């Protein structure tokens, strides 16, 4: 037992060995939750669990779109912690940069498998394993790219738009037991998003009314709110966490 008292709640967070997913795990553990984190790199997951605290965190390595991995994650989390109150679907990919008109359709399929279908798979399994009878909350990590045109990362943007729609579909179907919401971040300083700001961070941040790019704890705080009692009457919503960048829409 650490200084923070256990809440009794458990979260499953995909794509959480680093970046936004890790930031979410930190925020939930800080309030007393226990977590299972997933990702492809076992070494990175081991390091993350050591940093988070082995008494509060566990990991399962694998590919998010692999159905056998999804089943194993849910089974092992239930075996270890006995419940899954919260699911945070953060696993995502964006393997291509360029016009969508020239996009290899096999790449498009990979993007959707990871960013959308895997989120549905984890939601289904978590629902049947615990939430259907006991309630809880799901948070899907979308993107502002799913809310407007996203030049050169079009497939990613389309997949995040689909994830936002999946959010409202699940919110409608899983009510009243389970609340389902999404978070749509703008650029957050992670390895995943490095290409969007590396070597020109000041220039990239200058376009944000709040004067900086996001950091993982910004999204962790939003996820903590959406999985808390303070948001008990919130479902089917997409919370934009963007440093005010959308305030510039339409400004010459």
Automatic annotation (TrEMBL):
SUPFAM superfamilies given in the database record: NAD(P)-binding Rossmann-fold domains
Stated family: Belongs to the short-chain dehydrogenases/reductases (SDR) family.
Keyword Oxidoreductase found: yes
Natural source organism: Streptomyces sp. SID14436
GO molecular function: oxidoreductase activity
Pfam annotation, one family: adh_short_C2
Protein name per Swiss-Prot or TrEMBL: SDR family oxidoreductase
Keywords, comma-separated and alphabetical: Oxidoreductase
Signal sequence residues: none
Superkingdom as given in the UniProt entry: Bacteria
This protein's record includes keyword Oxidoreductase: yes
InterPro entries for this protein: NAD(P)-bd_dom_sf (IPR036291), Sc_DH/Rdtase_CS (IPR020904), SDR_fam (IPR002347)
């Amino acid at each position: 037992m650490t200084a923070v008292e256990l809440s009794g709640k458990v979260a499953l967070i995909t794509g959480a060995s680093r970046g936004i997913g890790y930031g979410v795990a930190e925020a939930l553990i800080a309030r007393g939750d226990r977590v299972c984190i997933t990702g492809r790199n076992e070494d990175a997951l081991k390091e993350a669990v050591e940093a988070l605290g082995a008494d509060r965190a566990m990991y399962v390595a694998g590919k998010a779109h692999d159905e056998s991995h999804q089943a194993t994650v849910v089974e092992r989390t239930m075996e270890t912690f006995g419940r899954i109150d919260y699911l945070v679907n953060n696993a995502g990919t964006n393997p291509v940069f360029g016009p969508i008109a020239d996009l290899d359709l096999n790449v498009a399929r990979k993007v959707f498998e990871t960013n959308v279908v895997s989120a549905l798979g984890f939601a289904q399994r978590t629902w049947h394993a615990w939430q259907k009878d006991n309630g809880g909350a799901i948070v899907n990590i979308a993107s502002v790219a799913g809310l407007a045109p996203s030049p050169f990362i079009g497939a990613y943007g389309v997949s995040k738009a689909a994830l936002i729609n999946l959010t409202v579909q699940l919110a409608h179907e899983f009510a009243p037991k389970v609340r389902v919401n999404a978070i749509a971040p703008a650029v957050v300083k992670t390895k995943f998003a490095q290409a969007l700001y590396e070597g020109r961070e000041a220039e990239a941040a200058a376009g944000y009314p709040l004067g900086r790019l996001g950091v993982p704890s910004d999204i962790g705080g939003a996820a903590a709110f959406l999985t808390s009692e303070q948001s008990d009457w919130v479902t089917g919503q997409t919370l934009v966490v963007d440093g005010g960048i959308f305030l510039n829409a339409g400004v010459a």
